[in-house]
Fold:
Amino acid sequence: MQNLRKMRKLSVVQLILPLLIAMPLAAAAPETPKVDKLLPASPSALADAPGVFFREDFETLTDLSERFHDLSTDNGNFGVTSPEGLSGFHSLRQKYRPLTDYAQGEDPGNAGWVWRAFGDNPFFQSRIPEDQKGQYTTIVARWYHKFPQGFTPRDGWHFPPKMARLNSFTPGNWSGMYRVYFWIAGEDGHISIERRTRAPAAHREWLPNFATNFRFSDPVNVGRWIHFELRVSLGEGTRNDRVQAWADGLLICDIAGDDLAAGYRTFTPNGMALDCYWNGGSPVEQNRYYDDYMLGTERIGPLRTGLNPTIVKLRFRGGVSQGGWEAEVAQGVQREPVKDKVLDGIVLGFRKLEVDYNTVWRGALEGTELKLQVNTANGEFTGPRDGETTLAANTLHFVRVRQKNPAGEWSPWSSWHSGFATDWAAGTPPELRTLPAGYLAEASASVLGLDETSPEIRNVRGPSGAIDTAGPYTVRADLIEENPLNLYVYYRYNGAGDYERVLMNLMSGDTFEGEIPGAQAGTLVEYYVRALDGFSHYTYLPADYQSNPFRFQVLDLARWDLNGDGLVGAGDLLKLLLAGRRNPDDPALDYDGDGSFGVGDLLTFLRGILGRGTSLLAGIAR
Structure:
């Protein structure tokens, strides 16, 4: 009987313990979800979109060589796979082997690629369809890409840099005349648009990189299908080409006045690659995917859905099942980008992109289902679509989602993402199939007139004296310049050696700030400010900085703390005045160096007091 009681007690514990363990999981709010994809209209609304001459969705392709002219399958790791897909059940997958699989001296970054040739490509003329031969002065490449949920960058930040590249091949030269790279760079995993040219009239071989604001370090950009697009248009002569890029329905790059072809026309853009090389290799075995690959001569944009599209959410994660989820759909209008960086007379970066979102539908599902159709059965239309039964045709939209667990705890809302466009209205003729409303085709901020004006530096403000040897010593300045590139404060100690420099950062409005490191007591700090704009114009302040820079002294606290309270202030000034009256010939009271105590010593002492920890007009002690 006692054994039976023990077994009953043990059974109760065994039943309760898992519940106690599970309770914190059930009570915790689930992670913020994201949209995996929107289901494209079927049949594809973009199959015969204006300008499109090549499209591959990998649904029926089994041999890549049937549709691509140069490729590497990376020993079978690069090829068509299922069931992962955007527009169906298949996509192009790169399977990365882990670093531990590679022998000493073997290249762990080598991975697959596919090239599609067109136009005047000299290597594959016999295989290029007749209607795709000739010369292309404008080419657009568009594809979808996915790093699956849980994709692991090396060292926590290093994503595979290669994604896609456009080339102008020339006879006998696989490197070609010029290339445009659509790559991933930096610790934040941003999309970087890079160009290399050997065109005869180009002013430099490597053109400066355009660093976009699209970042894979943002968790919302890993685990879902994302629209990417590259457009290259050649102008007449030098400094007249244009390179543009889009991500997730937004214009992220616009380089006008570029010098890619620089007037060269013997060969034009004639090959586009999807490229998976990972410099240094992958830390674990994992995959990436491409789908819905298109080439054309007109801007294409993100996928087109029906007017009642279906949203597909990523699977619920967090240890318990999904209790339900909600979605909101908004019409999106991208605002004009604001240029942030200019070099060689072209814009090389935008400030944070801004989009106006106007919610037009809200809906929800209970349970574990991951697909939600936008209609009146699952939600309600609102805002400008109040009372309607569909989304507006030919319009750019974005989605945000949140989810709950069975206990009813909700996650935060995701950010707006998964930009998509609705189909054109039924019966729209090809010549009227315009880009979706809200979709930004180009940025006027990227088009610059010739700037012949040098930057103007105003109101340099720095310490006139300092008693803090730890530093830093703050220098502020105002910069008046339409196309600023950088602003530096140069400094040196005791008039010896070369000047060091510190980048000054924009604080607000036109005001920049930089910090000079601390120095020992008695050190004379000399400094000046230099500005550079995007047209290689320099400005210095003071203008005679080489012979007469701004300067201040790091003071010796023992010499300035006359009343011994550990501070330098009005009490010390008063003690100096009284001591100077009693003993004007005391050399310890000679602060201005004229041999005796007087008004100059009081003023010098006062400057030191006012200079510590405050910002005055630099040069007051010059």
About this structure: The chain is about 10% helix and 40% strand. The helical segments are 2-27, 557-560, 570-582, 599-611. The first helix runs from residue 2 to 27.
